[in-house]
């Protein structure tokens, strides 16, 4: 391969490596999204949260034990964040109830005082709302991290069937609660999405390997 061909080859490989990095970020992003979806389907109402420990996804087993531990840790941390959010909301509610609209404004002094209170309340209210937005963001990030932590501990239906459990799984699925079916659906969709992205990464890696093979010098032929 000549100088120009070698240069083009290197440029193409650089581009492909960049594509791989971007594509791998897509895998991470999908796992984070899975974390939000998975956590929410496990805890989208109080009754479900209480019964989560009885779900099939938490049955005894090495992977499920790891999943349970990660879930319990995430739940504890999210509950703490929700408690902070609730406290901030209560402070905001109290501020609104005791706001400037309850103050008399018959005299000029009272009107000025009320105006000052309105400005003060507006500033304090904005600060509380900003703090609440930070809590929302922290909750989102914690759920996303939950997805990264537990993704490898979950299995899609097809994987379970490949392990010779097809009959048992089919029977189990028919006895699943509505929530358990929702949980399995969330897992299945996420796994399929990630697999598609992983196939793209492997395709890019094969293209790089092909370009590498083009640059390998030909073995010298022996003279007769």
What is the typical, i.e. mean, pLDDT? 78
Bin the helical content.
Answer: over 70%
Largest sheet: none
Helix and strand succession?
HHHHHH
Silhouette: flat
**What portion of the residues fall into strands of 2 or more residues?**
under 5%
Poorly predicted runs are: 164-174
Distance between the termini: 26 Å
Based on helices, strands and strand pairing, what is the structural class?
Answer: mainly alpha
What is the number of helices? Answer: 6
What count of domains describes the coordinates? 1
Total number of strands: 0
Radius of gyration: 28 Å
Q: Summed up, what is this model?
A:
By secondary structure, this protein is mainly α.
Give a written overview of the molecule:
The protein contains six helices and no strands. Mean pLDDT is 78; it is low at 164-174. The chain has helices at residues 3-43, 46-51, 62-97, 108-150, 157-175, 178-215. The two termini are 26 Å apart. Helix 1 packs across helix 4 (108-150), helix 1 runs antiparallel to helix 6 and helix 3 (62-97) runs antiparallel to helix 4. It has one domain.
Please render the helix and strand layout as text.
Layout: H1 3-43, H2 46-51, H3 62-97, H4 108-150, H5 157-175, H6 178-215
Helix pairs in contact: 1-4, 1-6, 3-4
Search tags:
mainly alpha, single chain, 224 residues
């Amino acid at each position: 391969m000549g100088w120009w061909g070698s240069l083009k080859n290197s440029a193409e490989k650089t581009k492909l490596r960049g594509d791989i990095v971007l594509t791998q970020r897509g895998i991470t992003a999908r796992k984070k999204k899975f974390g939000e979806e998975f956590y929410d389907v496990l805890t989208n109402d109080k009754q479900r949260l209480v019964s989560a420990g009885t779900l099939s996804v938490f049955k005894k087993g090495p992977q499920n034990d790891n999943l349970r531990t990660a879930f319990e840790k995430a739940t504890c941390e999210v509950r703490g964040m929700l408690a902070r959010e609730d406290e901030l909301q209560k402070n905001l509610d109290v501020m609104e109830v005791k706001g400037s609209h309850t103050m008399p404004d018959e005299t000029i002094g009272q009107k000025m005082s009320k105006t000052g209170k309105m400005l003060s309340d507006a500033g304090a209210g904005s600060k509380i709302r900003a703090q609440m937005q930070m809590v929302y963001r922290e909750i989102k990030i914690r759920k996303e991290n939950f997805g990264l932590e537990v993704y490898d501990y979950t299995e899609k239906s097809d994987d379970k069937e490949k392990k010779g459990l097809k009959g048992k799984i089919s029977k189990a699925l028919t006895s699943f609660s509505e929530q358990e079916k929702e949980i399995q659906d969330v897992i299945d969709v996420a796994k399929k999405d990630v697999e598609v992205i992983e196939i793209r990464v492997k395709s890019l890696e094969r293209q790089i390997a092909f370009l590498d093979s083009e640059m390998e010098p030909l073995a010298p032929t022996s003279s007769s």
